[in-house]
Amino acid sequence: MQEVSVMKRHRSEEFAPLMLVMSGQKKNRLVRSLHDMAEALMLAWPSDDGEEYIVAVKTCLDALYGNRPVKDARAALIRAAEEAGILVIGVIP
């Protein structure tokens, strides 16, 4: 029988919050969790291409499934934001 992978639930405390300063209707986007990160990448990102963007999407999914540390996904998001010209501000919880 084939084993089915189940997404692991991560608490928001595992993800140090970031504010993404984006252009468009929602200029600022608070990212406090992997779920927030996935929404930002899939729904609000200005472009769906770029090497760092692809890496960030894959790393986010890997972290959601428990195959990568949350900190790796956060770092990938920061690199993708830099690539896309999005300002990233650390938020104190």
Describe the structure.
By secondary structure, the chain is α+β, with helices and mostly antiparallel strands. It has one domain (21-90). Helices cover 43% and strands 13% of the residues. It contains three helices and three strands, in the order E-E-H-H-H-E. It has helices at residues 34-44, 51-64, 70-84; strands at residues 18-21, 28-31, 87-90. The protein has a three-stranded antiparallel β-sheet with strand order 2-1-3. A hairpin with a 6-residue loop joins strand 1 and strand 2. Helix 1 (34-44) runs antiparallel to helix 2 (51-64) and helix 2 packs antiparallel against helix 3 (70-84). InterPro entries: DUF982. It comes from Rhizobium grahamii. This is DUF982 domain-containing protein. Pfam families: DUF982.
Estimated share of beta-strand residues: 5-15%
Distance between the termini: 44 Å
Task: Provide the gyration radius in Å.
Answer: 13 Å
Oligomer: single chain
Please list the strands of the largest sheet in the order they lie side by side: 2-1-3
Largest sheet: 3 strands, antiparallel
Mean pLDDT, to the nearest integer, reads 86
- Separate helix tally: 3
Q: How does the helix and strand content classify structurally?
A: alpha+beta
Number of strands: 3
Task: Return residue spans where pLDDT drops below 50 for at least 5 consecutive residues.
Answer: 1-6
What is the succession of H and E elements? EEHHHE
Shape: globular
Q: Please give the share of residues in helix.
A: 40-55%
Tell me the number of structural domains: 1
